[in-house]
């Protein structure tokens, strides 16, 4: 078991501005080997201090010592360029009502970003990809996160899904419209099909294919927008531009 070290932000009163401002941002460190001392830009922290609530570096800087959570390890995994964002993962899980009893099939495993979160929430995940490199990376990710309820397999889901009667099918593939029939055959009656696409034209073709199927109901396509805000005393303003990542289409099987 590792540890998380957090150094709180540093504030100083600036006479010229007549106000207190943050002069040093908070920093977080994930320590995976707690049997060794850890070097930071604020000095070295002795490994014997990892068992305490607070640790002091060789330069006298104070750190809070915490037990790591899943998200701390997740943020350290190796990601491919188009790994699904946390905000979109949340949208998928909540819109489909994925829970501890759910069985999910997904395609386009990638670096196992969505796979990992699904596995933490649901009963079992069947994940498919056609790239050996992606599957190898995903295997390492799942091992690092100690996730065991995922079945990884090399398979072309445009042809079919090897599983049946799952609660949710998630598609993260270049041409999701070619996977509509195979997804429909894999998901149970009342279950959901989700398509995640970076381009709206992909979503358009997917929805068009869905509407040709009598037993499928197109629900909606959403774009989850996120913008960080900076709050310092009475100074409140957007910290970043509106962030677009992808378009997510939701479908439900009726019969």
Q: What does it look like?
A:
This protein is an alpha/beta fold and 255 residues long. It folds into two domains: 3-68, Vcp-like ATPase, Chain A, domain 2 (Roll), CATH 3.10.330; 73-253, 3-Layer(aba) Sandwich (Rossmann fold). It has helices spanning 70-74, 86-96, 113-121, 132-144, 180-186, 200-210; strands at 3-7, 10-14, 19-24, 27-31, 38-40, 43-45, 54-56, 62-66, 103-107, 124-129, 150-154, 166-171, 187-197, 216-222, 229-232, 235-238, 247-253. The longest helix is centred in the middle third of the chain and has 13 residues, at 132-144. The strands form five sheets. It has a seven-stranded mixed β-sheet, sandwiched between helices. Strands 4-1-8-7 form a four-stranded antiparallel β-sheet, with no helix packed on it.
Radius of gyration: 22 Å
Can you tell me the CATH architecture of the largest domain?
Answer: 3-Layer(aba) Sandwich
Between the first and last Cα atoms, what is the distance in angstroms?
47 Å
What fraction of residues sit in β-strands?
Answer: 35-45%
Shape: globular
Please give the count of helices.
Answer: 6
Series of secondary-structure elements, N-terminal to C-terminal: EEEEEEEEHHEHEHEEHEHEEEE
Number of strands: 17
The fourth-level CATH homologous superfamily of the largest domain is: Vaccinia Virus protein VP39
| Helix-strand makeup class | alpha/beta
What is the CATH domain class of the largest domain? Alpha Beta
């Amino acid at each position: 078991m590792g540890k998380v070290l957090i150094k709180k932000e540093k504030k100083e009163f600036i006479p010229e501005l007549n106000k207190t401002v943050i002069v040093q941002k908070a920093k977080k460190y994930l320590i995976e080997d707690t049997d060794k001392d850890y070097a930071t830009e604020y000095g070295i922290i002795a490994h014997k201090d990892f068992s305490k609530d607070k640790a002091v570096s060789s330069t006298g800087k104070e750190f809070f010592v915490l037990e790591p959570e899943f998200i701390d390890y997740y943020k350290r995994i190796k990601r491919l360029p188009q790994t699904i964002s946390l905000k979109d993962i949340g949208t998928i899980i909540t819109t489909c009502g994925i829970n501890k009893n759910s069985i999910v099939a997904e395609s386009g495993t990638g670096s196992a970003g969505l796979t990992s979160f699904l596995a933490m929430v649901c009963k079992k995940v069947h994940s498919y990809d056609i790239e050996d490199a992606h599957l190898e990376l995903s295997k390492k990710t799942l091992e690092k996160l100690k996730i065991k309820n995922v079945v990884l397999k090399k398979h072309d889901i445009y042809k079919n899904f090897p599983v049946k009667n799952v609660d949710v099918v998630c598609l993260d593939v270049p041409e999701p419209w070619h996977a509509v029939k195979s997804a429909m055959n894999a998901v149970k009656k009342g279950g959901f099909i989700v398509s995640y696409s970076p381009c709206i034209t992909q979503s358009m073709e997917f929805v068009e294919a869905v509407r040709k199927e009598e037993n499928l109901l197109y629900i909606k396509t959403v774009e989850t927008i996120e913008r960080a805000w900076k709050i310092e005393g009475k100074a409140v303003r957007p910290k970043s531009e509106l962030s677009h990542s992808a378009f997510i289409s939701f479908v439900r099987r009726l019969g």
